[in-house]
């Protein structure tokens, strides 16, 4: 079997070492990116006359052949006998292109190669994910449109706080997911320096044209320090960190929908295609999509902890520990892609239950702050108004009567500034419409926000 390092060794590696160290099952994922890197490399080698133009063409043809022959699933044929993706391409290139195949790895190490291919791979994946996040955002905007003017109780401490538009609540998640998208974009923006040409750690005594490689492969510049280049996986830590923050938000979105789907709420009804049943209780229709998102968030956080810990305390420069960067990174990218897709479908098809929401905002406590602000508008100092409304809340609770049923005489015992206008305050539309501040749940502003997002996400 092909090996990139046989000469020094008098014996074949032990089978259990091979099984322990081979990475083709995981890094075959990089095959397309690595073929692209090899094409640029074959061109560069001819440019600097380390190989002839003819040899370069033979290598390029060979790389095309390898690409055409590769089928998903091929990895099963090779993962026990081939160490990694780099070895695979080397072996195949020698097979299909002949002896000139032996020149492709000139002045190269797998240490600089693997970082280069991983960055190219990440560039493609993060670009795809950007669109997937936009898709989920679009689905949330669609929910906000369907919600129209529906008002729900907003919560703090999971206790009813103040009425808010359902659309405002949904757009809160659009806001958060869009910052996550920006964070991933920032991470991608820092993956702009070409690693290739750093060699194993020290660079090379051969005249490689790194600037040419950078241009061919779409990097803005060449990396400035060969040791930092092969030693570091901060790009993976940063990607996983941005993904972990995205999942932190997805898990909260999931939790809200789980709550809204529960019997005490019944605000949302999931489409049958995006809900699951129970093997024992025939009546059940469960929100498993959201529970899996909430649960998988833990797995993603685990991958972030892993990539940080893998690198912690490593001496300069490359160490084989770094190979462990890929399983978690690839898994996180796959899981994120899948979660965003299924969330999109679930959100696009769910329906909101207006009657349940209307019932939920028939709770006097939700309007206490509106009474407070009404008093402040009538000249009562804030602290005094707070005290007065608090006393009214306590009085109504002790009497076991809704606040809005207190007589005007009772109300005026708490503040002389109260008049008959107070009764109109106990209304969801009145409450949200009264808001004045930028970014609030005021329906006119929410409508503008909705339009802004529709434009951004078009
Ligand atoms: N598979 C390795 C990694 O992912 C790259 C190969 C470097 N191997 C080596 N023995 N220097 O980091």
Kindly describe this structure.
- With 458 residues, the chain is mainly alpha-helical.
- The chain has helices at 15-21, 24-27, 31-47, 53-69, 75-78, 85-97, 110-147, 166-189, 210-216, 226-231, 234-261, 288-311, 325-349, 354-360, 368-377, 382-399, 408-412, 428-433, 443-456, and strands at residues 151-156, 159-165, 193-194, 221-222, 268-269, 351-352.
- The radius of gyration is 31 Å and the shape is elongated.
- The chain folds into 3 domains: 6-106, Fumarase/aspartase (N-terminal domain) (Fumarase C, Chain B, domain 1, Orthogonal Bundle), CATH 1.10.275.10; 111-203 and 224-359, Fumarase/aspartase (Central domain) (Fumarase C, Chain A, domain 2, Up-down Bundle); 362-457, Orthogonal Bundle (Ribonucleotide Reductase Protein R1, domain 1).
- The chain has a two-stranded antiparallel sheet with strand order 1-2. Strands 3-4 form a two-stranded parallel ribbon.
- Bound molecules: arginine.
- Arginine is lined by residues 23, 84, 110-111, 114, 318, 320, 322-323.
Give me the Rg, rounded. 31 Å
Name the poorly predicted regions: none
The strand line-up of the biggest sheet is: 1-2
CATH class of the largest domain: Mainly Alpha
The CATH topology of the largest domain is given as Fumarase C, Chain A, domain 2
Q: How would you sum up the global shape?
A: elongated
List of distinct ligands in this structure: arginine
Question: What structural category arises from helix and sheet content?
Answer: mainly alpha
């Amino acid at each position: 079997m092909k090996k990139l390092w046989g000469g020094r060794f008098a014996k074949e590696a032990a089978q259990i070492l091979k099984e322990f160290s081979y990475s083709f099952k995981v890094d075959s994922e990089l095959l397309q990116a690595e073929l692209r890197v090899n094409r640029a490399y074959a061109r560069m080698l001819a440019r600097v006359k380390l190989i002839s133009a003819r040899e370069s063409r033979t290598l390029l043809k060979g790389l095309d052949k390898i690409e055409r022959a590769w089928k998903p699933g091929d990895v099963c044929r090779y993962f026990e006998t081939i160490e990694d993706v780099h070895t695979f391409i080397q072996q195949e290139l020698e097979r299909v292109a002949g002896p000139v195949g032996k020149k492709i790895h000139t002045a190269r190490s797998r240490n600089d190669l693997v970082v280069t291919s991983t960055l190219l791979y990440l560039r493609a994946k993060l670009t795809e994910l950007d669109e997937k996040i936009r898709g989920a955002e679009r689905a949330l905007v669609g929910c906000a449109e369907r919600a129209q003017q529906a008002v729900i109780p907003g919560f703090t401490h999971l206790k009813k706080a103040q009425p808010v538009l359902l659309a405002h609540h949904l757009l809160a998640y659009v806001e958060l997911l869009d910052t996550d998208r920006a964070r991933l974009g920032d991470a991608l923006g820092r993956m702009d320096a070409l690693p290739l040409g750093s060699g194993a750690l020290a660079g090379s005594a051969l005249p490689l044209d790194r600037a040419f490689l950078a241009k061919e492969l779409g990097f803005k510049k060449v990396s400035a320090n060969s040791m930092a280049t092969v030693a570091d996986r901060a790009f993976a830590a940063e990607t996983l960190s941005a993904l972990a923050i995205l999942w932190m938000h997805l898990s909260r979105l999931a939790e809200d929908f789980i709550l809204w789907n529960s019997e005490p709420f019944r605000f949302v009804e999931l489409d049958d295609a995006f809900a699951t049943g129970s093997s024992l209780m025939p009546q059940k229709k469960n929100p498993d999509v959201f529970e899996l998102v909430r649960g998988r968030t833990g797995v993603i956080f685990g991958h972030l902890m892993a990539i940080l810990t893998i690198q912690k305390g490593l001496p300069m420069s490359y160490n084989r520990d770094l190979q462990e960067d890929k399983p978690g990174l690839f898994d996180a990218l796959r899981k994120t892609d899948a979660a965003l897709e299924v969330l999109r479908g679930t959100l696009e098809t769910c329906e909101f239950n207006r009657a349940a929401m209307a019932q939920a905002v028939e709770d006097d406590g939700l309007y206490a702050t509106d009474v407070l602000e009404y008093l402040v508008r009538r000249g009562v100092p804030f602290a005094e108004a707070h005290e007065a409304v608090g006393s009214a809340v306590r009085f109504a609770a002790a009497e076991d009567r809704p606040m809005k049923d207190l007589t005007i005489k009772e109300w005026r015992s708490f503040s002389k500034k109260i008049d008959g206008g107070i009764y109109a305050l106990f209304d969801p539309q009145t409450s949200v419409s009264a808001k004045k501040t930028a970014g609030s749940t005021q329906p006119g502003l929410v409508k503008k926000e909705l339009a802004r997002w529709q434009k951004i996400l078009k």
